[in-house]
Amino acid sequence: MSSLAVSTTVDQQIVLHQFTPRHSVQARALLGWSREDLARQAGVGVDAIQRFESHQEVDDAIRIALAFRLEHEGLVFFPGFAPGWGMSGRRSPAPQADAEPARRSLIARLLGSPSSNTPQPNGA
């Protein structure tokens, strides 16, 4: 078996153990997607998503298709934690010139730092 095939099999096994029904619900909420949206994007039936999110049995292929499609949007999944954005995750579009200025982040307000909306890495 080639290393690519082994890598793919390992990736699929990791997804099967890490991606939970709760992750699916939370990920859809982060993306603002309905079950119908996810079904269309992942190429699976709405009823399959309903069954999975209701903790009923679904084929491994369904679970993998859902997880991989959501990961394609930049989300990452870890057991026991809500989904989050990965390093290359999708970001909000840049604000338009006529939009109101965004509020300072909680961290910026607490630290009294300039009106940066995004926490900066150490040393930045």
TrEMBL record:
Segments of skewed composition (Polar residues): 113-124
Region (Disordered): 88-124
Domain HTH cro/C1-type: 26-75
InterPro entries per the UniProt record, alphabetical: Cro/C1-type_HTH (IPR001387), Lambda_DNA-bd_dom_sf (IPR010982)
Name of the protein in its database record: Helix-turn-helix transcriptional regulator
Biological source species: Pseudomonas shahriarae
Source taxonomy: Bacteria, Pseudomonadati, Pseudomonadota, Gammaproteobacteria, Pseudomonadales
